[in-house]
Amino acid sequence: MDITGLAVFLAIGAVAGWLAGTLMKGGGFGLLGNIVVGIIGAVVGGFVFGLLGISAGGLIGSIVTATAGAVLLLFVVGLVKRS
């Protein structure tokens, strides 16, 4: 992965984390927090989409997949924190 690919990867993570934070609790988690949530969300989203047989390609598809995974991640973390 070159520096451009890494920058795009981090940007997608930041956007996905920010979107998930906005959807789930009304705000983001700061730049670093958004990137971490977005990257973990991308892994979770890719796994779940793969199980469901859904394929999303391109930049928008990557953002949608990462955001869906990040929302799911935040939902599960919220459930665990309540317990």
Residue runs with pLDDT of under 50 for 5 or more positions? none
Mean pLDDT equals 88
What share of residues are in beta strands? under 5%
Structural class: mainly alpha
What is the H-and-E element order?
HHH
**Global morphology:** globular
Distance between the termini: 40 Å
| Tally of helical segments | 3
Please provide the count of β strands: 0
Major beta-sheet overview: none
Helix % is: over 70%
Whole-angstrom Rg: 12 Å
How would you portray this structure in words?
- This protein has 83 residues and is an all-alpha fold.
- It is globular.
- It contains three helices and no strands.
Features:
83 residues, mainly alpha
Write the layout of secondary structure elements.
Elements: H1 3-25, H2 30-52, H3 58-82
Helix pairs in contact: 1-2, 1-3, 2-3
